[in-house]
Amino acid sequence: MKHHSIGEFEELVLLVVAALHDEAYGVSIQEKLAEQLSKNINISAIHVALKRMEDKGFVKSRFGGITEDRGGRRKKFYAITALGKHVLDSQYALRTTLYKMIPTISFSR
């Protein structure tokens, strides 16, 4: 199978999309990342990452209904695909393997 490349930020966004399941859209992703990372994340960066991942086939999108509180605009929801889940599984396995390579010695602070 072809190796699929994913950067750290894309990986974080993809993890949040998977965690939020059917409720993943730009602002909900931004809020969850800000909560978990304890820092503000630019919404434009999230949209760029989502577009790149949709182009790669890691996520798919759909539009929600029109709502008055959004001025007649629709939310664009994202869901992880089977390929996206495979990429996350591969990243997790790689990181775990590398972590386990750290010798069990005392590290100075």
Topology:
Blueprint: H1 8-20, E1 24-25, H2 26-37, H3 43-56, E2 59-66, E3 74-80, H4 82-100
Antiparallel strand pairs: 1-3, 2-3
Explained architecture:
- The chain is α+β, with helices and mostly antiparallel strands and 109 residues long.
- It is built from 4 helices and 3 strands; from the N terminus they run αβααββα.
- The protein has helices at 8-20, 26-37, 43-56, 82-100; strands spanning 24-25, 59-66, 74-80.
- The longest helix has 19 residues, at 82-100.
- It starts with 7 loop residues before the first helix and ends in a 9-residue tail after the last helix.
- 20% of the residues are buried.
Describe the sheet with the most strands.
Answer: 3 strands, antiparallel
Strand order of the main beta sheet, please?
1-3-2
Q: Which blocks of ≥5 consecutive residues have pLDDT under 50?
A: none
Give the strand tally.
Answer: 3
- Helicity level: 40-55%
Residues in β-strands, percent: 15-25%
SS element count, helices: 4
Rg over CA atoms: 17 Å
Q: What is the terminal separation in angstroms?
A: 41 Å
Shape: globular
Q: What is the succession of H and E elements?
A: HEHHEEH
Overall pLDDT:
91
Structural class: alpha+beta
Can I get a quick summary?
With 109 residues, this protein is an alpha+beta fold. 53% of the residues lie in helices and 16% in strands.
Using brief descriptors, characterize the structure shown.
109 residues; alpha+beta; three-stranded antiparallel sheet; 53% helix
